[in-house]
Specification:
Radius of gyration: 22 Å
Number of helices: 12
Distance between the termini: 30 Å
CATH architecture of the largest domain: 3-Layer(aba) Sandwich
Order of helices and strands: HHEHEHHEHEHHEHHHH
CATH superfamily of the largest domain: P-loop containing nucleotide triphosphate hydrolases
Structural class: alpha/beta
CATH topology of the largest domain: Rossmann fold
Helix content: 40-55%
CATH class of the largest domain: Alpha Beta
Number of domains: 2
Number of strands: 5
Strand order of the largest sheet: 2-3-4-1-5
Length: 269
């Protein structure tokens, strides 16, 4: 018997691929959802920043999961520490193209493909670029022109740039003023610093996983709140370790001793 069976859970309390009913909507992600919906309807460039672990990628994945198919084609780029040509090849592959060898040909092929998708097929491309702080400056300079038409300045694709706060500062540099002026939505995700919201987050995770009883002592929940500083990824990791530790200790819930043991192991206490 593993820990999921012991606690009658269908899956981890906070699965790494959380989306749909397993995703927790906080006030911050609710604001993001409104901006995301607007840019899905009226394509443009969005900027999503936040410290490591606050849930940027998870939130965008959840929102993309909710888009109607085949009205949208989502392309996710994460290998950003590469050349502009490498990025264009990734984008072409995501759009189902056989990328030409030369950059100029590839640029033309991408523009034509997006124009065909939008005007002929009624499909809206949506490009998510994770770890965008590593993008080469040349690519950032060209991004706006890539996703717009020359004649009417129509935006052919919605683009979301994801990264830490330094990405926001980088885009405000004078050399990138043209791209910065195109950003139609700016969202910064914070940790779940409000105690009530954090406990709603915990409750949602247990409920979505199928818990039928209280598996976390109130005092242990307070300790988790302080130790994680409200960062969802940290809290999810500590909770997963605590459930496994409680199972190993033949306990039916997480008490302070279990969580303190985990924190000692993680050197967070």
């Amino acid at each position: 018997m593993d820990y999921l069976q012991r606690f009658s859970l269908r899956h981890d309390v906070f699965p790494r691929d959380a989306k749909g009913k397993t995703f927790f909507t906080s006030p911050g992600t609710e604001r993001l959802a409104r901006r995301f919906a607007r840019l899905a309807r009226d394509p443009g460039v969005g900027l999503l920043t936040g410290d490591v672990g606050v849930g940027k990628t998870a939130a965008i994945r959840h929102l993309c999961h909710g888009l109607p198919r085949p009205d949208y084609q989502v392309v996710y780029l994460e290998m950003t520490a590469t050349s502009p040509l490498g990025l264009y090849r990734q984008l072409a592959s995501g759009l189902g193209l056989e990328p030409p060898g030369r950059k100029a040909q590839l640029w033309t092929a991408l523009k034509e493909a997006m124009l065909h998708m939008v005007d002929e097929q009624g499909i809206q491309p949506l490009v998510v670029i994770d770890e965008a702080q590593h993008l080469p400056e040349e690519f950032l300079h060209e991004l706006g022109a890539l996703v717009t038409t020359g004649m009417d300045a129509r935006c052919l694709a919605t683009v979301w740039l994801l990264g830490p706060p330094l990405l926001r500062a980088r885009l405000r540099m004078k050399s990138l003023a043209a791209l910065d002026s195109r950003i139609a939505a700016r969202i910064h995700l914070e940790p779940l610093a409000d105690r009530d919201v954090f406990f709603d987050f915990l409750g949602h995770g247990f409920q979505a996983a199928g818990a039928t009883s209280n598996l976390l002592a109130d005092s242990a929940g307070e300790l988790l709140f302080r130790a994680s500083r409200g960062v969802p990824r940290t809290a999810a990791h500590l909770l997963r370790e605590a459930l496994m530790t409680a199972h190993e200790q033949d306990k039916n819930f997480i008490d302070d001793a279990v969580l303190e043991s985990v924190l000692d192991q993680e050197a967070l206490a």
